[in-house]
Each structure stands twice: as C-alpha cells, then as structure tokens.
C-alpha cells in the first residue's frame, strides 16, 4: 500500500513534505490529480496530456502516512518562463496558509534555477487575489529590510516617505518574481507614485508596522517555508512535440 505520492520527496520540514511527480513517469496519478482539480476549478482544462508537466504535491504526515493538502503543476519547458500552471488546495485545508506556501515554493524552485518567473495567464479571480497578496508580502518584507524599523521612527515624522534604496530589478532577481508583477502590485496597493517625472516608491509607516506584526506572529507556524530544507537541483527534460 502506498503511504505517500509517487515520485521523489524534495522537501521536508516538520510534518510537511513536497513530492515532485513527473507526468510522463506517473501518468495515471497525474491525470487523476487533474480530474480531481476539475471538481473545484471551473477553468481547469488539462486532463490527459500530462507528460509535459511536473506536479509538486504537498503533504502532511501522520502515523498513517503522507496526506495531500494541495499541489501545483508547471511545464517542463515554458517559453514565457511560467513557473506555475495550475494550483489547488483541498477544501478541508484552506485558510491554513498552504496556498501561499505552494506559491512561495514555486518561486523557490525558480530561484534555484536562477531565473525569474510568473504564473500562467490568464489568472482566475481567486488566483489573482492570492498572487497579489503574496507579491505584496514580498515587497513589504523587502522594504522592512531596507528601512529602519517603522516603530522606531520619530512620532513627528510623516506616515508616508519615499524609499530611495528600493530597486525593482534587484528585488526581482532576489525573489524570482517578474518586474511586471512587482510593479503592477505596487501600483494596485498605492506603493508606487509618479511624481515630477520619476516613479517614487512610497514607504507607508502604518502598512509596514502592520506587516512587521504579522511576520512576528507567524514565526514558528507550520505553514512557513524553510528554503534550507529543499533538496533539489534543476533537471533538463526533452522537448515535447
């Protein structure tokens, strides 16, 4: 009896594991994942042609084995550098942080490949909300690293100031997120302003204060990714016609 998904375990931290499953080697299993996803995703169109894809299955471990909480798939070869094609978190595991972990894991693989990537378009409404939330978190965390602690600022200082050290290109290379996704997220959340012929990144004290508290409260959470636990190197796959 199988007590875990097929394929290779490439990540383990605490009770959380991720298995890499090749759609060519484990065709029936991957087709079953796609058919299951169709039950919850209206725009799911891939069912049977799974050979050009890799599937990353996240599980929780207990005494009976590894139980799937969600997965995402990605193309082995993507001309647009898409790092995620489809993502699903099972309903009973929603609102536990697994969706964010899967998105973050896709970018962890992208960084290990020394690339920048983006999810396959078009995004669903829920997908866009999830990604914007993740991109915003990456941007705010980067701002906290660049700037003094917002809570230590003088009480007479403005609640909004520019962040002159901020470089979208550097953050893109560091995070694996495409520049276009970072810029659109900053515009959406009002973190970027065009003033006197220049784009100014805005450092909002109240927003950074709130984000710092959120990061502090999340320490030790099981739904936190530990990059040092990834045991994976990029692999070259043959092209599919």
Notes on the structure:
Helix 3 packs across helix 5 and helix 3 packs across helix 6. With 241 residues, this protein is of the alpha+beta class. The longest helix is centred in the middle third of the chain and has 22 residues. It is globular, with a radius of gyration of 19 Å. It has 6 helices and 10 strands; from the N terminus they run E-E-H-E-E-E-E-H-E-H-E-H-H-E-E-H. A hairpin with a 2-residue loop joins strand 3 and strand 4. The strands form 3 sheets. The protein has a 5-stranded antiparallel beta sheet with strand order 1-2-3-4-6, sandwiched between helices.
SSE blueprint:
Layout lengths: L7 E6 L2 E7 L4 H12 L14 E10 L2 E11 L6 E3 L1 E4 L8 H15 L5 E2 L5 H22 L13 E3 L5 H8 L3 H10 L3 E4 L2 E7 H14 L23
Parallel strand pairs: 5-7
Antiparallel strand pairs: 1-2, 2-3, 3-4, 4-6, 8-10, 9-10
Helix pairs in contact: 3-5, 3-6
Task: Give the tags.
alpha+beta, 6 helices, 241 residues
Strand arrangement within the widest β-sheet reads: 1-2-3-4-6
Estimate what percentage of residues fall within beta strands.
Answer: 15-25%
The count of helical stretches stands at 6
Order of helices and strands: EEHEEEEHEHEHHEEH
> What are the low-pLDDT stretches, counting only 5+ consecutive residues below 50?
149-158
Overall outline = globular
**First-last Cα distance:** 35 Å
How many runs of DSSP E, i.e. beta strands?
Answer: 10
Helix/strand-derived class?
A: alpha+beta
Radius of gyration from CA coordinates = 19 Å
Instruction: Provide mean pLDDT, rounded.
Output: 89
Biggest sheet record: 5 strands, antiparallel
As a percent range, the share of helical residues equals: 25-40%
């Amino acid at each position: 009896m199988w007590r875990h998904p097929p394929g290779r375990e490439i990540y383990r931290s605490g009770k959380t594991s991720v298995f890499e499953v090749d759609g060519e080697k484990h065709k029936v299993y991957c087709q079953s994942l796609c058919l299951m996803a169709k039950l919850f995703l209206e725009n799911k169109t891939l069912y049977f042609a799974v050979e050009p894809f890799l599937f990353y299955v996240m599980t929780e471990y207990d005494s009976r084995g590894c139980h799937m909480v969600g997965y995402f798939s990605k193309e082995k070869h993507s001309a647009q550098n898409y790092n995620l094609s489809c993502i699903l978190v099972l309903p009973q595991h929603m609102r536990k942080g697994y969706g964010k972990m899967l998105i973050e894991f896709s970018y962890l693989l992208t960084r290990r490949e020394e690339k920048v990537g983006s999810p396959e378009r078009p995004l669903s409404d829920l997908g866009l909300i999830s990604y914007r939330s993740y991109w915003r978190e990456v941007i705010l965390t980067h701002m906290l690293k660049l700037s003094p602690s917002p809570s230590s600022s003088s009480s007479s200082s403005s609640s909004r100031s520019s962040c002159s050290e901020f470089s979208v290109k550097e953050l893109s290379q560091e995070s694996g997120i495409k520049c276009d996704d970072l810029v659109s997220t900053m515009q959406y959340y009002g973190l970027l302003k065009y003033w006197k012929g220049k784009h100014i990144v805005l450092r909002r004290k109240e927003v950074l204060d709130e984000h710092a508290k959120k990061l502090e409260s999340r320490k030790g959470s099981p739904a936190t990714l530990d990059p040092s636990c990834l045991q994976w190197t990029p692999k070259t796959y043959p092209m599919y016609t």
